[in-house]
Design a protein that fits this description.
Largest sheet: 7 strands, mixed
Number of strands: 22
Structural class: alpha/beta
Strand content: 15-25%
Distance between the termini: 39 Å
Number of helices: 23
Shape: globular
Radius of gyration: 31 Å
Helix content: 25-40%
Length: about 700
């Protein structure tokens, strides 16, 4: 049987117990999984040093020589084994703290060994702690070139699956395969790339023959990863467009016209008008609309969504708006009611806390078609909610919903509704191309008239007195203040202590004002109550964790104070800043940090102070932190988990891969021809599970 398809337990040095650890800790089950478990760095082992050359500045060294003698030093836990090692040019200590008996039995004095490790300084002498040791004839190819290092967990190390062990298992697998690894790219695609073969790439990514071959291997594997993701996304999108017909909203009727002429609260921006035209074209085309609507907080996405919902109502279809939290659903409901005023449109709110009596009135009205617009949380996807004719589903902050949850909206109708996804999290173009590559993207890149950009400043926590004076002045003007503390999983206990301490300090400093606290460990009812009190103006200062990042709309709140701002990513800082600046008054965001900041942190804060452009900030965030830190990547429907490519650093490869994928699909949309058999098979291996891509 092909070793790539077999369990790794059959590889030399693995067995059932280690195989179980590899599966649980590194998601490695088969030989192929192991081949695609790439090194995270390489160390040059092409040179042998002399002991006399060793100094404490060297990251790693390789020596050839023999052991003069062993000696045991210390007692109990401090016991260690020391070997005096020489190459004829000097003597260096080799030190072990574990497995002393095994080491003493395995390695003999007088025999020649190749020793590799990181030198440490103790007094005036150097030592190598737990070095790699091999007989010269047994040294792997890596001792002559670039040595791979693999990520390992503590559990893997305890099971003797440290980086060196993974390296040995990789070598055994690749030696067994003897470069007989089938191609994934057919000749007509491969020839256009001018890349090395897959077999050469997989060998050289683990055991590079040279730095140049490593670069070529990385290029080939990055292309493969991005090409097959793009091929999958584009093929799924085309398939959906061909097979899924959309409701035809053929007319713009009285509701839309009346709202536009009489109830529109302000002149639409050119960006809003453009987006409405794009949606209108989608919903009259006969194909299902799948559109991502991006725009900063306050750019007017909800108004645009309402106008799309009125198009549905004018064509005798219902529309729903699904939000991730009860508070946000309630605010959307109130906003839509305020927009519609006394228009003859029936709108209802359905959340988990909707009382049974209200629910018993809403559900039949939805099923009978009397309710035209339904706003709610995930309560909308419950089996008890049946629509008469759902024509449009608007989903706000969609990465907060799992793709399986969103899919349940689809079974509410014989034909799937049009889908509009709203996101206030600006997504860089390269990430959007991959996360939402099968969606049409609309961007609202203008703020409505009267909105003033938030003024952002950076202040050190040693100057709190000035900050308190500023806040007191703003509150005196009738404004309200958010104070946000970080909450990071790894330091959750300490973070909660900081939050509670901050709450205590603000209550002491502002005894004349009402200060409230909100965090995720509170009972939902208490949390919602505290937020409502802030919305109503009863509370002047809200001390909170990032639970307020989505879902708070308080035009009177003019100041956002972010404590320990250096611990937040740029995109999250921008999201938090978006909670203020919703009224006509000048708003402020104060980034509070300690004075001990790295160069990168200072750069991050400078970007926030100098820019209010969410897309510019998202691009900078992705450059600085990589795509993995941006929200939504695991909920995207393709389970984006890149093993070697970077959406930031490899954007040129991504664009080339996408162009080539489009070219292939233009010639053979379903990859049915025999010359695309390899592409078909590879897509099935990579994405052969449930096809969520038909759900936006």
């Amino acid at each position: 049987m092909d070793p790539r398809l077999q369990s790794v337990m059959y590889l030399p040095g693995v067995g059932p117990k280690k195989a179980a650890v590899l599966e649980q800790e590194a998601n490695i089950v088969s030989g192929e999984d192991l081949l695609y478990y790439f090194p995270y760095k390489y160390v040059d082992r092409s040179r042998f040093y002399k002991v006399s050359e060793v100094n404490g500045e060297m990251p790693y060294i390789q020596l050839k020589g023999h052991i003069l003698q062993f000696e045991t030093v210390g007692e109990m836990k401090s016991k260690r084994l020391i070997a005096k090692f020489t190459d004829g040019n000097g003597v260096i200590d080799l030190v072990w703290f574990k497995g002393l008996k095994y080491i003493e039995e395995k390695y003999k004095t007088g025999r020649e060994y190749v020793v590799f490790g990181k030198p440490t300084v103790f007094g005036k002498s150097y030592s190598l702690v737990h070095p790699d040791m091999d007989l010269p004839e047994e040294v792997l190819q890596t001792a002559n070139g670039l040595m791979p290092f693999y990520n390992t967990t503590e559990r893997m190390k305890k099971a003797f699956l440290h980086s060196r062990a993974v390296q040995h298992i990789q070598y055994a697998l690749l030696s067994t395969l003897n470069r007989q690894i089938p191609e994934t790219l057919p000749p007509h695609v491969w020839e256009q790339t001018r890349l090395i073969s897959l077999a050469d790439a997989l060998w050289n990514i683990h055991f590079p023959a040279s730095a140049d071959m490593l670069r070529k291997a990385q290029l080939r594997l990055k292309f493969d990863e991005l090409f097959f993701i793009q091929l999958h996304i584009l093929r799924s999108a085309r398939s959906r467009q061909q097979t899924l017909k959309g409701h035809v909203f053929g007319r713009i009727g009285d509701l839309f016209h009346t709202f536009y002429k009489k109830y529109l609260p302000f002149e639409l921006t050119n960006a809003q008008k453009r987006v409405i035209r794009e949606m209108r074209a989608d919903m009259r085309s006969g194909r299902q609309m799948n559109r991502l609507l991006q725009g900063d907080v306050g750019s007017g996405k909800t108004l645009v969504a309402l106008m799309a919902m009125l198009m549905a109502a004018d064509n005798h279809y219902q529309a729903c708006l699904m939000a991730p939290t009860e508070l946000l659903a309630q605010q959307h409901y109130q906003t839509l009611k305020d927009f519609l005023k006394d228009m003859p449109v029936r709108i209802a709110l359905l959340t988990g806390s909707t009382k049974k009596k209200e629910r018993s009135g809403i559900l039949p009205a939805v099923a009978g078609g009397e309710v035209q617009l339904l706003v709610g949380t995930h309560a909308l996807i419950e089996d008890t909610v049946v629509f008469a004719s759902l024509g449009l589903a608007v989903i706000d902050e969609q990465h907060r919903f799992g793709v399986a949850q969103r899919s349940r909206l689809w079974v509410k109708n014989p034909a799937p509704p049009h889908v509009l996804i709203m996101s206030a999290t600006p997504i860089p173009r390269t990430l959007a191309m991959t996360l939402y590559g099968d969606l049409d993207v609309s961007v609202i890149d203008e703020l409505p008239p009267g909105r003033r950009p938030v003024k952002t400043v950076h202040r050190l926590d040693s100057r709190k007195a000035e900050l308190y004076a500023f806040l007191r002045d703003e509150i005196r003007k009738g404004r309200q203040v958010y104070v946000v503390y970080p909450l990071i999983e790894e330091s959750e206990t300490m973070d909660y202590r900081n939050l509670e301490e901050g709450f205590r300090v603000f209550r002491e400093v502002f005894p004349e004002h009402t200060v409230c606290m909100v965090h995720g460990k509170m009972k939902p009812k208490d949390r919602e109550d505290a937020m409502r009190r802030f919305v109503s103006g009863e509370v002047q200062i809200l001390v909170a964790t990032t639970v307020i990042e989505v879902g708070m709309n308080v035009p009177n709140a003019s100041v956002m104070v972010i404590e320990s701002a250096e611990r937040f990513g740029l995109s999250q800082l921008h999201q938090l800043r978006g909670r203020v600046g919703r009224g006509a008054e000048q708003s402020f965001c104060v980034l509070v940090t300690s004075s001990k900041l790295s160069g990168e942190m200072r750069k991050r804060l400078e970007i926030m102070v100098n820019s209010n452009d969410g897309f510019e900030i998202a691009e900078a965030d992705m450059r600085m932190r990589g795509h993995g830190d941006l929200e939504g990547t695991q909920q995207s429907g393709i389970g984006l988990s890149l093993k070697i490519a970077s959406l930031t650093a490899d954007s040129r490869i991504l664009r080339f891969a996408r162009d080539l994928a489009e070219q292939v699909l233009n010639e053979d949309p379903q990859l049915e021809s025999s010359r695309n058999r390899l592409l078909r098979e590879r897509l099935h291996r990579l994405f052969g599970r449930k096809n969520w891509s038909l759900i936006s």
